[in-house]
Design a protein that fits this description.
alpha/beta; 2 domains; five-stranded parallel beta sheet; 39% helix
Length: 231
């Protein structure tokens, strides 16, 4: 079996060298890019099994690199490396299509565990049959990636769509923040679960605002649910 190829995008030389040594010890093939433009060129010209992408980079920021890459490549796992411990930066990265993030300073064992998780996750494939989820006047077509309420199209980001699908598949069941993180983000979450609160707020603005009956319900002290009978 070929060694997985990992692109390390990091401008701190000591850290990039440490990552290179640790990953090669674990039998990964590595290449280092120390600025955003080189990273973008490498990500678009070669195939990678996984990318470690720092947010703070010269020439192009990690978020800008991520934005441009995801226009052409939606499947390569990308883990953000960031010194910023703020919900906004985490949400921005995940919303742009990052699969995961880890905040500096981090333990190398934790990073290696995250890498193993993403390398063994199969690429998401389209559903083999038409599948429509319904809650009253709210419909989600999984094949078409389309959301309608009262026959009005609703434009959601990929992360918002996944969160809505999770809630609808578990309608009338209260999901904790931890459960939503696990189902929607697909990894054992380390950090603030209020990322979920941010996305719930986004969803409510798009799905419930302007309608008499809100579908997305908060169960105080527990989590969130979608009910098919409103309040």
């Amino acid at each position: 079996m070929a060694q997985p190829a990992i692109l390390i995008v990091e401008d701190e030389q000591k850290l990039s060298r440490l990552l290179e040594l640790e990953l090669e010890y674990e039998n990964y093939r590595t290449v280092i890019a120390d600025n955003g433009q080189d990273a973008l060129d490498l990500m678009l010209s070669k195939t990678w099994d996984l990318v470690l992408l720092d947010i703070m980079l010269p020439e192009l920021s990690g978020l800008e690199v991520l934005r441009r890459v995801r226009r052409k490549d939606e499947t390569t796992p990308i883990i953000l490396l960031t010194a910023r411990d703020q919900v906004h930066d985490k949400v921005s990265g995940l919303d742009l299509g990052a699969n995961d993030y880890i905040t500096k300073p981090f333990q190398i064992e934790e990073l290696l565990a995250r890498i193993r998780v993403h390398l063994r996750q199969p690429v998401k494939q389209a559903a083999t049959q038409s599948d429509v989820l319904e809650v009253c006047d709210l419909q989600v077509n999984l094949d078409a990636h389309e959301v309608k309420r009262a026959n009005q199209l609703i434009d959601l980001t990929p992360r918002e769509f996944d969160l809505l699908v999770c809630l609808m598949k578990h309608k009338n069941i209260v999901m904790t923040r931890e459960q939503l993180i696990e189902h929607v983000w697909g990894f054992d979450y380390y950090g603030d679960t209020n990322v979920v609160d941010v996305y719930i707020r986004y969803l409510r603005q798009k799905v419930d605002k302007g309608f008499e009956m809100p579908h997305i319900q908060t169960v105080r002290g527990v989590g969130y649910t979608i009910r098919d009978n409103g309040q």
